[in-house]
Amino acid sequence: MDSLQGKVAVVTGAASGIGLASARRLAGLGALVVAVDIDKAGAERVAKELGGRAVHADVSRVDHWEAIVAGAKELGGIDVAFLNAGVTTGEQDVTALDDEQYRHIMGVNVDGVVFGTRAVVPEMAARGGGAIVATASLAGLIAFPGDPVYTLTKHAVVGFVRALAPRLSELNITVNAVCPSLVDTPLIDGEIRDALAGSGFPLIDPDAVADAVLHCVGGEATGQAVFVQLGWEPTAYRFGRPPGPRLDSVKGKVPPGWLSAPSPPPS
User: Fold this and answer.
1) 59, 61, 67, 73 alpha-carbon torsion, rounded to 10°
2) How many whole angstroms separate alpha carbon 181 and alpha carbon 13?
3) CATH classification at residue 36
4) pTM higher than 0.70, yes or no?
5) Fewer CB atoms inside 10 Å of the end CB: C or N, the chain?
6) Catalytic residue, candidates 65, 82, 115, 150
7) Contact yes or no for 178/209 (Cβ under 8 A)
8) In this structure, is residue 249 part of a structural domain?
9) Residue 150 among the catalytic residues
10) CA–CA dist 47, 24 (Å, integer)
């Protein structure tokens, strides 16, 4: 992708980590960036640096999305949305998970993506199309016992993206998820960071995830879960084909020709 000149990009969680790295890269290609964060001072700092617009918002709240869209429309509309804001629980023991922790992570990680998508699609459609990218995680592709509820939310993001893609393609809108392994962001707290450093486990630089974001924004593929691992180029994860019904259990119970219909290729 050579240029995003004249395009408007909304980035949530823009004040730090993956969001900040991606906002800088999008702005570097000429996009006007709407920096969204619950950290008001952080959003304003990024917007000032990039010459964009700051919006102080909680992505889990529907009414805050009205302000985000309004801020983008003042710049012309929405062409790119990077729905990146996320949190963890840091809780391995589900019996120790309290209601506030659960509602908070579901609100940010899942509601923020669903509400955000619902809010930006009409604006993109009005401009002839666009690109949506959501931050999932490698924990959206594997079982991560270190934080089961975080894993739940990231599986939800991947499933949402894959299911939504065919309908949005009718509007010339792509939607993809980026699924990085452990990234050097503020979500990696001191205890975990120290443990990883002690074991020699390398953290991924946020710029590597920004590469994957731009890969999704600039491409035509949709409905993909693009994983980010050290030593790999951004690569779409290949899901296995789910099992169908056993033939001997459905013969005579389905319409003629159904069993001979070709199976869709795995994505």
Assistant:
1) 60
2) 18
3) 3.40.50.720
4) yes
5) N
6) 150
7) yes
8) no
9) yes
10) 10
